[in-house]
Amino acid sequence: MSRVTVRDVAERAGVSISTVSRVLTGNAPVSKELHRRVVEAIEELGYRPNALARGLRIRRTAVLGLIVPDIANPFFSQLARVIEETAHRHGYSIVLCNSQNSRQRELEYFALLSSQRVDGMMIISSAATHEELSQFQSATDAAVLALDRRIPGFQGPWLGADPYPGAFEAVRHLLDLNHRRIGIVRGVEGNISSDQRFEAILQAYRDNGLTEPPWIWAGDYSVETGIRAGDALAALPPDQRPTAVIAASEFSAYGLVHSLHDHGLSVPEDVSVVGFDNTRFAELFRPALTVIAQPIERMGRRAVETVLQMIAAAEEEPPPPVAPLPGSARPRTAKTQRVTDEWLPTKLVVRASTGPAPRAGSTLRFA
C-alpha cells in the first residue's frame, strides 16, 4: 500500500500543500474552515507526518541522490563533480550511487534513495525501463530528473545534450578539410543515447549534402570497440578507406587512434578522427582529440537547478493527478508540472586529431 503524503491530504481537502503545512506546523494562521477540512482529510487518510519529509513537510533533508552507470568513465565522474559542487553551493549534499551498468543495482539504488527520504534524484539510467522507474517514482515524494540518457515513456523531465549541432559542425569541418569519405564508429544499436548520436551524425551528413556514410562500424562506447574498428579500417584498400572517422564516444576514438598507429597509419595525416564528449583527457591525449563537446559544466549546474526548481514547484501547490499506474489504488501525483525537457547544445572543439585529407596516391606515413 502506498504511503499517504501531504499531497494526498491537500487533494482530499481541496487546498494547497502550503495550507496543509501551515496546519501541521502552526507557523501561520489558517481559517477555521480550511483547518477543519485539512484535519478531516488527515483523519480519513490516516496521514502521519514524517519529520524527515521534504518541502511541505516539517523540515528538509537537504540531500540529493545521483545515480550514474559507471563512475570510472571520465564523463560521469566529471559530471558528478560539477553536480556536487553546485549542490554544495545551494546547501545540499549528494549521495552518489554507481550502478555499474546493472539494471538490478540501478533499481536497488533508486529504492535506497527513496527510503532515505532524499529531496530529489538525478538518474543516468543504463538499463531500467520506464515502467520500473515509474513504479518507484509513484512511491516517493522526491523530485526525479532523468539526466543525459532519455528514458522513453518516463513520466518526468529529462535534461541532456543535443548531439546535432556539434555533429553538423564536425561534418562541415571535415568537408572544409576536403574529406569526402567520412566513416562512423557508432555505439550499441537500440541504446537511446547511442541511437541519438548516430541519427544526429546521419542527419548532419544529409544537411551537408552527403549521402550515406561509406563505412560504419557498430559496437559500444568502449576503447575495445575503437581498436576493432581501427583494425577493420586498416585492412581496407587505401582507395576504399575513409580518410576521416567520427566516433560516437571519446573512449572509442582513443582505441581507434591507438589501433591505427599500430597499423602504421598516422592521425591526422592519414586518417582524421573526431570523438564525442570532451572530458579533460581529450586535450591531454596525443594527438589532442577533436571532439563533439557535451556541455558537461552547464549540464551539471542545470541538473541541480532543475531538481531544485521541481522541489520548489511541488511545495507551492498540489500537482494535478495523472493516470494511475497498473495495479495502483490511487492516482499518482505529477511532481514536475512546471519543468519541461531541456536540450543543451553540443559544439565542435577542434584540436590536433583532424587535418587535411591525404592526397590521392600519397605515401602513407609509418610511425
Q: How is the secondary structure organized here?
A:
Blueprint: H1 6-13, H2 17-25, H3 32-45, E1 63-68, H4 74-89, E2 93-98, H5 103-115, E3 120-123, H6 130-138, E4 143-147, E5 158-162, H7 163-176, E6 182-186, H8 192-207, E7 216-218, H9 223-234, E8 244-247, H10 250-262, E9 272-277, H11 280-284, E10 290-293, H12 296-316, E11 321-322, E12 332-333, E13 342-345, E14 347-349
Helix pairs in contact: 1-2, 1-3, 4-12, 7-8, 9-10
Q: How many strand segments?
A: 14
How are strands sequenced across the largest beta sheet?
2-1-3-4-5-13
Helix content: 40-55%
Taking all Cα atoms into account, the compactness measure Rg is 25 Å
Explain the overall architecture.
The protein is of the alpha/beta class and 367 residues long. It folds into three domains: 40 residues, no CATH class; 139 residues, 3-Layer(aba) Sandwich (Rossmann fold); 133 residues, Response regulator (Rossmann fold, 3-Layer(aba) Sandwich). The protein is built from twelve helices and 14 strands. The strands form three sheets. Strands 2-1-3-4-5-13 form a six-stranded parallel beta sheet, with helices on both faces. Strands 7-6-8-9-10-14 form a six-stranded mixed beta sheet, with helices on both faces. The longest helix is centred in the last third of the chain and has 21 residues. It starts with 5 loop residues before the first helix and ends in an 18-residue tail after the last strand. The C terminus is likely disordered.
